[in-house]
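Input chain follows. Return structure tokens only.
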Amino acid sequence: MSYDPADYLEVLAGAGCEVDAWETTYLHLLHGDDPVLQWCKGTALRPVIAALPAERAEEFLREAAGRLRTAYPPRRYGTVLPFRRVFAVAHRA
């Protein structure tokens, strides 16, 4: 589930806090073969790969690689991966 800065503002201000909330999208420039897959394998895909038998994991990774190449096509200077982050800082008045 993804929340917007306004959602955090609502909850934290409702709890009596002064709040600064914002979002940033980092544009990671990745290089190499299937760079988005390689990036995801180090984080989000670890539990998925660990749960699959080896032959199914390889099949999954092949299919994921194709879909990620379509979603994040390589450019002459690398592959751009937008990475959204939401920040909130709250303190009591």
